[in-house]
Specification:
The structure is a single chain. By secondary structure, this protein is mostly helical. The chain has one domain: N-utilizing Substance Protein B Homolog, Chain A, CATH 1.10.940.10. The protein is 73% helix and 0% strand. The chain is built from 8 helices and no strands. It starts with a helix and ends with a helix.
C-alpha cells in the first residue's frame, strides 16, 4: 500500500466505495465496518471519511461529469474502475487543494493495484479529459 497517509486514505476509500456500490449498504455502515475491521494504521482517517461520504452525496453530479467523457454508461464501467473514477472526480471537483496531476496519478495508481490489467489507462484518459473541464485554469497554466 502507498506510503503517505492521504494515499492510504484514498486506497481504503476506493475499497469502501467498491463495497458500497456492490452491496448498497448505508455508507456510514460501510465506514463503521472499515474502521473496525480494516488496518487503518497510517491512514488519514479524516480524509478517508470525507471522500467516502462525498462520493455518495454528490453521486449524480459526479456521474454526469463522467458521462460527458466516457464511451459507455457508467454502470457498464468495471465496478473497481467506477469506484476509482468516482474518487478521482471527487478530488478534481471538490478538493482544489489537491493538484489535478496528483488526483489523476493517485487514481491511476489505485487502478493499477485494484483494477483490471489495462484499467489504469482508461482511468488516466477519463480523468485527464475531466481535469481539463473541472480544473481549466490549472490545466491551462500547465501548457
Amino acid at each position: 500500500m502507498a506510503a503517505n497517509p492521504r494515499s492510504r486514505a484514498r486506497s481504503r476509500a476506493v475499497q469502501a466505495l467498491y463495497q458500497w456500490q456492490l452491496t448498497g449498504q448505508n455508507v456510514s455502515d460501510v465506514e463503521t465496518q472499515f474502521l473496525a475491521e480494516e488496518d487503518m494504521s497510517g491512514v488519514d482517517v479524516g480524509y478517508f471519511s470525507t471522500l467516502l461520504h462525498e462520493v455518495p452525496a454528490n453521486l449524480k453530479s459526479f456521474d454526469e461529469h463522467l458521462a460527458s467523457v466516457i464511451d459507455r454508461g457508467i454502470d457498464a464501467v468495471d465496478p473497481v474502475e467506477r469506484a476509482v473514477l468516482r474518487l478521482g472526480v471527487c478530488e478534481l471537483a471538490l478538493h482544489p487543494e489537491v493538484p489535478y496531476r496528483v488526483a489523476i496519478n493517485e487514481a491511476v495508481e489505485l487502478a493499477k493495484v485494484f483494477g483490471a490489467e489495462q484499467g489504469h489507462k482508461y482511468v488516466n484518459g477519463v480523468l485527464d479529459k475531466l481535469a481539463r473541464k473541472l480544473r481549466k485554469p490549472e490545466t491551462s497554466a500547465r501548457k
